[in-house]
Amino acid sequence: MAANNRRMSGKKGAQVGSGGQRRRGLEGKGPTPPAEMRKGHKKNRVAGAKAKQSVRRPAPRGRGGKGTSEMVVGRNSVVEALREGVPATMLYVQQFIDNDERVREALQLAGERGGIHLMEAPRPELDRMTNGLNHQGLVLQVPPYEYAHPEDLAAAAYDEGQDPLVVALDGVTDPRNLGAVVRSVSAFGGHGVVVPERRAAGMTAGAWKTSAGAAARTPVARASNLTRALEGYKKAGLVVVGLAADGEVEVGDLEALGGPVVIVVGSEGKGLSRLVGETCDFRVRIPMPGGTESLNAGVAAGVVLYEASRRRV
Asked: What is the pTM of this model?
């Protein structure tokens, strides 16, 4: 009867069988999540609306044109993209995610960068957005890249009183090669890179990462027809130099590299396409006494850009 009297009493305090629930209820629950991730908050609703409008929708095209939004998925990929400064507009975080070091670093980097909205989403929504890829609860939205127009690269160089130094890529489909070329162009004082609109690598998150930040200061232009773009460069006073394994001139012997020039690099396997090769004023080769048959686009461009910058000092 004594036990029953204790349970029936109206006294405050822990009761028999509480299991310490009141004590646990007083424990902290960690830092308050950002407003964009708090369900019911106005910023959460606004971020959700923006997300639905922007996911995988092509952007309007201007003079140079824009690409489409891209999704970087997976914890390691998202963290690496944020570390390398890949531009982003939205970081999606799965509801009730297992909060490991990579998740915490992604949230920290996004918060420090600014301009990146945080959006909490249920797993089915992230599955739908990524077409079922293994996103691991983290998805980073990369905005469309704003391409320049090929004419703008040469015009900007002339406006600065410099001879244009441009690299054009013919049939290069690996974004990492594009990123490496952008990095080399930036390192050797070039004025930009031109890529075809079709069947070619574009400025994806992978290209941004490989450029190691150079993509933020080196413009990339997109040409609807590369041959016509090269002909336009000729009219603007640039010499078109194509790299080819069977080129008639060695790269170190070409005086034209010291003036206004566009260097055309083909794919590692097929080289320059027929029409592009016929448009070139010179076809040059890189001597390789070690016996290697070919170099990838990034390395080949770097060799020729070095020679061009050496002649311009």
From this structure: 0.73
